[in-house]
Design brief:
It contains six helices and two strands. It has 129 residues and is mainly alpha-helical. Among the domains are: 36 residues; 47 residues, no CATH class. The termini are far apart. Bound molecules: zinc ion (2 copies). The site of one zinc ion has 7 residues, from loops.
């Protein structure tokens, strides 16, 4: 069992103690204990990280998930063109689902998107006439 713990630690330096423990069906305390006794580091080595957007390798001091702010913005936002004023604007992907339309909003306007509520209002106002 000790050998298994040590082997897993060495084969999988990025695994946490908890991962090794669950792999062997033992407690994390046991894993730590064995590794300490063997003089092996109990903490995992942080894996290499890459920019989630462009794949550039991140330096160890870079604790973020992106190499720069542009990548961060482009990863979580999508460029959109306002249906009313043709302005290019960025919208968070997560908020795309709820803005500007949700289940309750009329399906007629689903293919349109607006930079601001003002533009949405203007667009809808035109439609009425
Ligand atoms: Zn990047
Ligand atoms: Zn607009």
């Amino acid at each position: 069992m000790k050998e298994d713990i040590i082997r897993l630690r060495q084969e999988h330096p990025h695994w946490t103690g908890a991962r090794i423990a669950s792999e062997l069906g033992i407690s994390r305390q046991r894993v730590n204990q064995v590794l300490l006794e063997a003089g092996i580091r109990t903490k995992r080595i942080a894996p290499c990280r890459f920019c989630k957007r462009c794949g550039t390798k991140l330096s160890e001091s870079n604790l973020r998930e992106f190499c720069n702010d542009v990548c961060k913005k482009e990863y979580s936002n999508v460029p959109l063109i306002c249906s009313e004023c043709d302005t290019l604007f960025w919208r968070r992907i997560s908020s795309m689902l709820v803005y500007p339309f949700n289940e309750k909003t009329s399906t007629r306007n689903k293919k349109y998107i607006f930079c601001t509520k003002q533009c949405q209002g203007r667009f809808l106002g035109k439609g009425k006439n």
